[in-house]
Amino acid sequence: MPPESFSAETLLEIDDLNLAMRSFEGEIQVLNGVSFAVKRGEIWGIVGETGSGKSLTGLSVSRLVPTPPGRYLRGSVRFQGKDVLRQTEETMRTLRGRRIGMIFQDPTTNLNPTFRIGTQLVDVAMHAARLDPSILGLDASASRGTRRAAAEKLAVAMLEKVGIPNAAARVHDYPHQFSGGMKQRVLIAMALIGRPDLLIADEPTTALDVSVQAQILRLIHGLVEEHNLGVLFITHNLGVVAQLCTHVAVMYAGAIVESGPVRDVLKHPRHDYTRGLLASVPKPSMKRGELRGLAGGALAAAPLAPPPPRPAPGGTIMSIENVVKEFPGARRGLFDRAPPVQALKGVSLEIRKGESFGLVGESGSGKTTLTRCILQLEKITSGRIVYDGIDLAAQTQQQMQALRSRIQIVFQDPYASLNPRMTIRDIIAEPMEIHHGKLGLTPRQRTDRAAELLEQVGLTTQHLNRYPHEFSGGQRQRIGIARALAPKPDFLILDEPTSALDVSVQAQVLNLLHDLQSRLGLTYFFISHDLGVIRYICDRVALIHHGSLVEQGETEDVFTNPQSDYARMLISAMPDPDPDLSPLRRVEAMLL
Question: Which structural domain, as residue segments, surrounds residue 573?
Answer without folding.
Answer: 317-328+338-587
